[in-house]
Amino acid sequence: MANTSYPASYYAASANPAPSRPALQDDVETDVCVIGAGYTGLSSALFLLEHGFKVTIVEAAKVGFGASGRNGGQIVNSYSRDIDVIERSVGPQQAQLLGNMAFEGGRIIRERVAKYQIQCDLKDGGVFAALTAKQMGHLESQKRLWERFGHTQLELLDQRRIREVVACDEYMGGMLDMSGGHIHPLNLALGEAAAVESLGGVIYEQSPAVRIERGASPVVHTPQGKVRAKFIIVAGNAYLGNLVPELAAKSMPCGTQVIATEPLGDELAHRLLPQDYCVEDCNYLLDYYRLTGDKRLIFGGGVVYGARDPANIEAIIRPKMLKAFPQLKDVKIDYAWTGNFLLTLSRLPQVGRLGDNIYYSQGCSGHGVTYTHLAGKVLAEALRGQAERFDAFADLPHYPFPGGQLLRTPFAAMGAWYYGLRDRLGF
Questions:
Q1: Contact 348, 95 (CB under 8 A)
Q2: Coil, helix or strand at residue 401
Q3: pLDDT, tens digit, for every residue of 101-121?
Q4: Which runs of consecutive H residues, i.e. helices, occur in 54-91?
Q5: Is the dihedral of CA 307, 310, 314, 320 positive or negative?
Q6: Sheet strands (E) in 320-398
Q7: What is the rounded distance in angstroms from the CA atom of residue 304 to the CA atom of residue 368?
């Protein structure tokens, strides 16, 4: 049996109290069976419950065990490939629909936090930091692009202004998005799970889906029980394994590494990030960081293709942190952990339907916190017969990795090496 307790992260150590949920032991019937209690599954379940569906979630480990409970905790708008790239690929009409949705995920998170009174250290404000003139030029065009789709909470930062929001000498400018922000990701998931249960939804933990019986009345099998449903939503993302072979072929789990320092104290924390915004740089293999509620610095970056756990996370990430903040050289690292996200070749999410009644969303490619909340709404709309927004995602082109599962890891790593080299050389 795989280890299904939370990894030893800062988030697990500071999680709000949550009930231990039983494993599924018998046969149950429901309207919708959701596979996976991460953000995609929880968001889908909440929207469906709010519209009167009966919902059952089966989770292989615990609520928020995967990327939802381990990520950098940053609310970042749009998709891993921006709307202009989508527009070139699918044309103006579909791009308009997707562009209109690009800023909705963050709004959904804030609505959920307010409506269900979720305690997750929600803070407003996210900064994209430019290391080169080329990156600054990209941010200027990104601002124009986002404003075209009605997104107006943006401010370009020159070198003087970015120094006012982050004490790092590396940056020549940036862009502040006040509708961005940050959260304690595991506490958000736990709060959403409590909201699901408050509306009559049922969550079974330690209940991996081992087989889906397809057909007019699909059945999800777990080791000790089964769920008969009218619809299934597959929301396992990077932790789905080979349950649905069609989905495994078109995606690749990747690991990202995160560290959390000891508490820095109010004065040092305020010196580093005076407004308590979160920050990510504009490199292809980007670094990202923010303060926690108890004034630790969480710093993440680096990608391990194929999702192996590196032996020494701190050795990979600490030098990156010290490059940004040499003033932290004597600060102790209290936690280091890794988590998997799911990469697609296009770096756009994959949304669709298998047969008439199995829906899925996967492959946020590193932009999961906001996208998954939107995906839950879009999947719930499709189940209620409103498919326009679902179809806009479902029609995005998707490709299997060249050479199949065997070659996808070296192929992607080679691409990342090339882009990492470009970042270092500044072109």
A1: no
A2: coil
A3: 999 999 999 999 999 999 999
A4: 83-90
A5: negative
A6: 333-343, 350-354, 358-362
A7: 17
Whether 102 contacts 180, CB under 8 Å? no
Q: How far is CA 195 from the centre of its chain?
A: 20
What is the rounded distance in angstroms from the CA atom of residue 81 to the CA atom of residue 196?
31
What's the predicted TM-score (pTM) here? 0.93
What are the structural domains, with CATH classification, of the chain? 10-410 (3.50.50.60)
35-64 per-position pLDDT tens digit: 999 999 999 999 999 999 999 999 999 999
Asked whether the beta carbons of 376 and 46 are under 8 A apart, the reply is yes
Q: Given the structure tokens 């990342």, which residue do they identify?
A: 416
Task: Identify how many contiguous H helices and E strands the chain contains and give both numbers.
Answer: 14, 17
Say if residues 147 and 155 touch (Cβ distance below 8 Å). no
Quick check: 373 and 384 in contact, CB under 8 A? no
Whether residue 187 contacts residue 121, with contact meaning beta carbons closer than 8 Å, is answered with yes
Helix axes 39-50, 185-198, angle to 10 degrees: 30
